[in-house]
Write a structure and sequence with these properties.
The protein is mainly β. The protein has a single domain, classed as Jelly Rolls (Sandwich). Helix content is about 10%, strand content about 40%. It has a 16-stranded mixed beta sheet that branches. Strand 4 and strand 5 form a beta hairpin.
Length: about 300
């Protein structure tokens, strides 16, 4: 190999190499009140999902009908997490799936293994160009407590940092960004037993953006403090509300969902399509009070 070719090859290798673990943590866009939480963050620079940080499925939820979450539709490639929605092939639909109504589409979800409360949560992402809801959200304080989640007497919180559809059927939903909070009375079973919702003031916000969600990457973020919830798009605050009930650690979620009762079903010719997430970065709020503890487990007889 001649000397010029050697140096060109070396430069290309350095440019394509993943970030080193000892590189400085990225600074929080909101400043020094926050410190980087590497255990909740991911640059997705490898060739596989980090299963020490994420589940490539949701242990508590198969998805809404008529679609199922599939681990095969979760990939990491080209420096991004790739969540794909696709059509089911006839030979993939068995009698059980058909009887239960999960018989049209595959979709994808990831869930952080750890939970966190107060902090700044940011994702840089690009939607798929299909009538599929793409989302970045926080939820499930009782993931490891079925004695609370599936009985009466408590509430399960959810904070939707981003929901959008890259190609909705209705023009009124095109380029519309949603930020929403939910508080469901237990028992809570995702998309099945969650109809008893605690009514909260100022619970949802939507606005029409001046860009197509599928055309390029944009950043979407939430600042979660003991006093307030604030949403950001590309560094600009777009919505804020008092933090009235959100004081327990939650999991990070990223998914693509078929929302039949909201956006409708995607056109088959638009699938497969992929929701791409360049990174998830999280910073803890320094000097924050301890989050609200969960009730103690019931004593066994």
């Amino acid at each position: 190999m001649n000397r010029s070719l050697f140096w060109i090859s070396l430069a290309l290798l350095l440019l394509c190499a993943p970030a080193r673990a000892d590189e400085p943590a990225p600074p929080c866009p909101l400043g020094g009140e926050y410190e980087f939480a590497s255990e909740m963050s991911d640059e997705f620079n490898g060739d596989a999902l980090d299963l020490d940080k994420w589940w490539d499925f949701n242990p508590a939820w198969r998805g809404r009908k008529p679609a199922l979450f599939s681990r095969e539709n979760v990939k990491v490639s080209d420096g991004a997490l790739q969540l794909t929605a696709s059509l089911m092939k006839p030979e993939e639909v068995d009698v059980e799936m058909k009887a239960r109504g999960y018989d049209k589409f595959w979709k994808a979800i990831v869930k952080s293994r750890q939970k966190m409360a107060y902090g700044y949560y940011e994702a840089r992402c690009k939607s798929m160009k299909a009538c599929v809801c793409n989302a970045f959200w926080l939820y499930d304080p009782f993931s490891d407590r079925p004695d609370i989640k599936y009985v009466e007497g408590e509430f399960s919180e959810e904070i939707d940092i981003l929901e959008y559809c890259g190609k909705p059927h209705a023009e009124s939903q095109n380029r519309v960004y949603w930020a929403t909070i939910h508080r469901y009375a237990t028992p809570y079973l995702e998309s099945i037993v969650n109809k008893k919702k605690f009514k909260t003031p100022n619970y949802s916000f939507k606005t029409k953006m001046d860009f197509d969600f599928w055309a390029d990457y944009h950043t979407f973020a939430l600042a979660w403090t003991p006093d307030a919830l604030r949403w950001y798009v590309d560094g600009k605050e777009v919505f804020a509300r008092e933090n009235d009930f959100f004081h327990r650690p939650l999991h990070i979620m990223l998914d693509c969902e078929i929302m039949d009762d909201w956006f409708g079903e995607p056109d088959p010719e638009d699938l497969p399509a992929t929701f791409s997430i360049d990174y998830v970065r999280v910073w803890k709020l320094k000097n924050a009070p301890e989050p609200e503890p969960l009730p103690p487990a019931p004593k066994k007889n």
